[in-house]
């Protein structure tokens, strides 16, 4: 059994490592980097059997869980629940939110496209499916390709047009980010979720995608972005567990917002008794019918093949 | 005047036509036509009487011969008539014994058995086996003519309440059957079943009574099963796959199951051990059941004993990433009659153990759907399904429970995560009720006591496992009730009182209704 202390500490559950990265999944790496920037010690656990789930990555501590598909993501959930917030003053900065949105839409789409549709599929396979038995991996991979096509609005007729559009947007995004960054260490002078999001994206583009990849070549045109990503990678890959400043766990509040219990509270006590009574009523009816049938002795058989008794006697006829 | 009947001197070998089984058309003896030709015209009743007497004399002679001595005979030819769709070899496969019969008694026995077997195939409307004399040049031979009438409507449907060996609980099932689509005696069926806990199953299968030269029938099913355990363990299970019945005889049962299983949690409230198991998995398992049932009645056992052992080995797949586990269950039953009021003492014990195998198996968690769960509405007294029932406790309401995700101030609920080792036992005294109507319809009463326990062994928990603690921490309940066996389902209405429960068990005294299949 896992020790109680293991349960209490902060754990990030992400997809498996690969390509020299602690986790090779595009939605998990930004969360990892964010936690590293915050200097918070955490365990890294892997989930290897759920490649198509949008619940991963998630952060847990005791009975508190922040899922990826709630409240806009793990980072946003941690901010909302007052667990961890690196962006407190930056929210008012005008281009912070728009840059976040640009990474979250244009660059994310471009990376999805490149991973699933642009390359031969081996990077995606390595990230998501190497721990599933072969038939399952194959079917889920094909299913995911269809899902990505649907999400990006790609059909047989508009493939080339959409591809050009996706790459164009990625180019614009890279250009804007490169201009914004300049030669600084961070986009906004201190580590923020924007840095985590971009570094996560950039490292996967640089290390997981093949050298022939269009997106990768576009990123390589911006030296400052590449150096920025490499520098931060060296920092957190080498600095393993102990960080410089805070080494205490963030306090997980016992009270958080309620996603599901509102619907539960709507089940008033009256409804509960009504349901219970209805159940007993139905059971009583059923029992009464069965008793009636057996006591009156008239339950009809439902045999489909009637096997008559063998007529072993000799029949003689005229 | 020529003798009307063709009654040769060795009367026993040329016997009047035997009809065995359901009669459709009777072949008239030639002799009767000749009878009418040659006899004078006395008033009708008289000639009939005379014929009757003559027949009777022949038959008495024959039956005397049959009972006193072996009448040697050889089967010359077997003819199959009436099958337009069914292949000849399917019918002839059931007639092997017939061809080897050496005497008339053996022939009659074999014919009756063959008739039964052909009817059992379920594809014929009627079967009629006629024994006729062989060609005149070969005395002492017989011809067998099998007349079959194929079912005109190959489609049939039924609704029933069953317990399938793969399923954990009983279900109400609607089945649509196609008989003999290919002429091989094949039975195709599609069924939809709905059971407790929103378990629903959609499946289709084919039953081949004979596949090439295999002795046992071949059963192939493809299925899609969904089970909803959100209320108890915060997950949904969806299983899609195929199952092959390899061997099925009275004592042995061997099946192979290949399934793609997905565990998901749409409520996103599951506890940590359950969260770790969500995802896809491939289960490729061989299941062997050894059954030995010497009780006088499976529905109301008053005498005898039974033993069932179920072994499941998962991971038989060339890919090492499929689910690897070994699951063993044992059931023992023993019933002792007490003599008065048709009463009997019925004892039973069930135990099961589960552990994963493969590299690093000591630290691996066992697969959640394979674990043992105690509690629910199933009744252990007549069924032999492993350690699953403990009356008085809610579904999955016993054993290790983990706290669920907490999102607000409310105390967090718990997920019952089951155990790797489970033992249940019961003692039950059944007796007739002192009313005449109850005795007529088979309704009886019973008083019982149940006990059971569940523990986790995987992930190095077995190091902390102590047998004394396991025995000391048993849960138990007592109760009394009435059992109503009907044609479709066995109904029990019990009042249960929980004597011992621990921690977070969901045991509650009260009236419970259980259904089980007959």
From TrEMBL, chain A:
UniProt signal peptide: none
Pfam family, one: GST_N_4
A GO term from the CC aspect: mitochondrial outer membrane
Listed transmembrane segments: none
Annotated InterPro entries: Metaxin_GST, Mito_Protein_Transport_Metaxin, Thioredoxin-like_fold
PANTHER family in the cross-refs: FAILED AXON CONNECTIONS-RELATED, METAXIN RELATED
Protein name: Uncharacterized protein
Organism whose genome encodes this protein: Punica granatum (Pomegranate)
Lineage of origin: Eukaryota, Viridiplantae, Streptophyta, Embryophyta, Tracheophyta
TrEMBL record, chain B:
InterPro entries to which the protein is assigned, alphabetical: Bac_surfAg_D15 (IPR000184), BamA/TamA_POTRA (IPR010827), D15-like (IPR039910)
Gene Ontology CC annotation, any one: chloroplast outer membrane
Pfam families recorded: Omp85, POTRA
Membrane topology: Multi-pass membrane protein
Alphabetical keyword list: Membrane, Plastid, Plastid outer membrane, Transmembrane, Transmembrane beta strand
Subcellular location as annotated: Mitochondrion outer membrane; Plastid, Chloroplast outer membrane
Family designation: Belongs to the SAM50/omp85 family.
Protein name: Uncharacterized protein
High-level lineage: Eukaryota, Viridiplantae, Streptophyta, Embryophyta, Tracheophyta
């Amino acid at each position: 059994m896992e020790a109680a202390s293991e349960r209490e500490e902060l754990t990030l559950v992400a997809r498996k490592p690969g390509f020299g990265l602690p986790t090779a999944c595009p939605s998990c790496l930004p969360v990892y980097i964010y936690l590293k920037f915050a200097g918070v010690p955490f365990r890294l656990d892997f989930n290897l059997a759920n490649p198509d789930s949008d619940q991963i990555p998630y952060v847990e501590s005791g009975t508190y869980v922040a899922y990826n598909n709630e409240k806009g993501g793990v980072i946003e959930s941690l901010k909302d629940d007052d667990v961890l917030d690196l962006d407190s003053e930056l929210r008012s900065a005008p281009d912070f939110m728009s840059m976040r949105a640009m990474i979250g839409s244009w660059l994310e789409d471009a990376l999805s496209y490149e991973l699933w549709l642009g390359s031969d599929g081996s990077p995606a396979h390595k990230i998501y499916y190497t721990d599933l038995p072969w038939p399952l991996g194959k079917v889920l991979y094909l299913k995911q390709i269809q899902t990505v096509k649907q999400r990006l609005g790609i059909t047989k007729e508009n493939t080339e047009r959409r591809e050009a559009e996706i790459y164009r947007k990625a180019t614009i995004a890279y250009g804007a980010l490169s201009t914004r960054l300049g030669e600084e260490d961070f986009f906004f002078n201190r580590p923020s979720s924007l840095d985590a999001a971009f570094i996560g994206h950039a490292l996967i583009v640089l290390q997981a995608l093949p050298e022939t990849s269009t997106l990768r070549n576009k990123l390589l045109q911006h030296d400052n972005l590449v150096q920025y990503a490499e520098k931060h990678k060296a920092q957190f890959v080498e600095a393993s567990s102990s960080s410089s400043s805070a080494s205490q766990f963030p306090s997980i509040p016992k009270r958080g917002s309620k996603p599901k219990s509102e619907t539960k509270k709507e089940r008033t006590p009256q409804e509960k008794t009504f349901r219970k009574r209805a159940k007993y009523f139905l059971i009583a009816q059923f029992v009464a019918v069965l008793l009636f049938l057996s006591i009156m002795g008239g339950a009809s058989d439902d045999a489909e093949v009637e096997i008559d008794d063998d007529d072993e006697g000799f029949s003689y006829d005229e | 005047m020529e003798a009307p009947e063709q009654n040769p001197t060795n009367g026993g070998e040329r016997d009047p036509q035997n009809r065995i089984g359901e009669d459709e058309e009777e072949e008239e003896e030639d002799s009767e036509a000749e009878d009418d030709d040659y006899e004078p015209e006395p008033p009708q009743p008289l000639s009939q009487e005379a014929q009757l007497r003559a027949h009777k004399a022949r038959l008495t002679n024959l039956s005397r011969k049959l009972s006193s001595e072996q009448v040697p005979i050889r089967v010359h030819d077997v003819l199959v008539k009436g099958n337009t769709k069914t292949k000849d070899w399917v019918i002839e496969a059931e007639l092997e014994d017939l061809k080897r019969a050496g005497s008339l008694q053996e022939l009659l026995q074999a014919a009756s058995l063959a008739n039964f077997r052909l009817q059992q195939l379920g594809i014929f409307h009627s079967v009629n086996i006629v024994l006729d004399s062989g060609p005149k040049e070969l005395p002492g031979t017989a011809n067998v003519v099998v007349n079959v009438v194929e079912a005109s409507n190959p489609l049939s449907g039924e609704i029933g309440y069953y317990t399938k060996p793969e399923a954990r609980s009983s279900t109400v099932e609607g089945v649509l059957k196609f008989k003999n689509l290919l002429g091989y005696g094949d039975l195709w069926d599609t069924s939809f079943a709905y059971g407790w806990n929103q378990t629903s199953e959609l499946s289709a299968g084919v039953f081949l009574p004979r596949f090439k030269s295999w002795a046992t029938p071949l059963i192939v099913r493809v299925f899609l099963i969904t089970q909803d355990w959100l209320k108890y363990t915060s997950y949904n299970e969806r299983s899609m796959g195929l199952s092959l019945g390899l061997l099925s005889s009275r004592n042995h049962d061997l099946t192979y199951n290949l399934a793609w299983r997905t565990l998901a949690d749409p409520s996103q409230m599951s506890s940590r051990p359950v969260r770790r198991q969500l995802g896809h998995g491939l289960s490729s398992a061989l299941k062997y059941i050894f059954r030995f049932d010497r009780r006088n009645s499976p529905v109301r056992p008053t005498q005898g004993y039974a033993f069932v052992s179920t072994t499941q080995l998962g991971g038989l797949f060339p890919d090492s990433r499929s689910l690897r586990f070994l699951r063993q269950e044992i059931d023992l039953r023993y019933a002792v009659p007490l003599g008065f009021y048709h009463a009997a003492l019925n004892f039973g014990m069930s135990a099961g153990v589960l552990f994963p195998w493969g590299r690093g198996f000591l630290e691996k968690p066992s697969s959640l759907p394979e674990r043992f769960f105690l509690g629910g509405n199933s009744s252990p007294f007549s069924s032999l399904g492993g350690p699953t029932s403990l009356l008085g406790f809610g579904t999955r309401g016993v054993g290790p429970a983990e706290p669920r995700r907490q999102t607000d101030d409310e105390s967090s609920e718990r997920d019952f995560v089951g155990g790797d080792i489970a033992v249940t036992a019961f003692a039950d005294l059944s007796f007739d009720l002192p009313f005449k109507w109850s005795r007529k319809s088979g309704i009886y009463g019973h008083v019982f006591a149940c006990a059971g326990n569940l523990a986790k062994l995987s992930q190095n928990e077995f190091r902390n496992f102590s047998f004394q603690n396991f025995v000391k921490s048993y849960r138990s309940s007592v109760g009394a009730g009435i059992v109503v066996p009907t044609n479709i389902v066995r109904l029990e209405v019990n009042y249960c009182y929980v004597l011992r429960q621990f921690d977070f068990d969901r045991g509650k005294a009260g009236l419970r209704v259980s259904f089980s299949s007959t």
